Amino acid sequence: MDFFFVEYRDPLVGLIFLTILIFVVAVANYVWKFYANKDAEQKLESFIKKFELNHTHKELLRAQSLSLNNLIFLAEIFTKSGEFEKATQIYLIALEKTADKDKREKIFLSLAKVYFKAGFLEKSREVLLNALKIRPRNKEALKLLKIVYLKLKFYKENLELLECLFELGEDISKENEFIKALKIESENLSQEQKQQSFLSLDFKDNAMLERYLFEKYEIFKKQEFSNLVDLLYKSLKPLNLDDEEYYEFFYALSLVDKKEGFQFKNSHLKMLKILKDNGFKARLDFSYLCLECKNLMPLFFYHCPVCYEFNRCKILFEVKNDEEN
């Protein structure tokens, strides 16, 4: 055992052993990196082959004359024009052309978005997981994966993913309760059991959860009128008439009698009432604005389909001609 205690031996011998040890560690590290990179390249090659389609112009796109930036620009053009198959092939070729992890991460994310838009959710999920292997703290990838999980009804995985976003400083408390509600709805329970479990959730200041409760069970918990107006228009059942907004809405639809001294505050509802009272066919037309990205949608959303944010939907309505009906 004394052999290992170099302080009792010639200092030159100790220096030689130290040099040999450093050399061995350096060689081992080099060999490990070599095989790790080789393994990563093989996995990437396997990934590309799995998603790759036969393409007549594939070799042309692989030419050295086309830079990575050119390929990405071309892929973006095809994505915007809706030619998703061509866009995915170009992104796969772009992955072959770069070994830079940051660039690969961005390409993976762009490829996942194309698959998502095209409706290939499983492919989008797999690509996003590859992006997150490079940088697990990629918020954009995590948020898109959250929407993919929602569409695939992977609620357990979604709740775990929200914990990751919480660690990154995101406020996920309200969204967490909403996902729990979706999970309850997907379980093999009776309607009564589902309703009981649903009502046990935390509804405090959670407008989207309250809307979902009304949408599923028509249970009214003094929800804000602005969050339910389109659902109220479909149901045509007067309720909460003590509230001025609710009363004004149902009066405009001629579902309740006029109160003494009542005056309209909403110009759209006033116009609707005047048109209906004068024999014109009119209806309310709804649109939905994302307060985060400012995109206008034709259908209500709990999560914005463009920026993937939760609880950013504002319901807009206007009076439209209904003569065709």
UniProtKB/TrEMBL annotation:
Keywords for this protein: Membrane, TPR repeat, Transmembrane, Transmembrane helix
Bilayer-crossing regions: 12-32
Swiss-Prot/TrEMBL TPR repeat ranges: 105-138
Domain of life, per UniProt, equals Bacteria
Name of the protein in its database record: Tetratricopeptide repeat protein
Instruction: Record the organism.
Output: Campylobacter cuniculorum
| UniProt lineage | Bacteria, Pseudomonadati, Campylobacterota, Epsilonproteobacteria, Campylobacterales
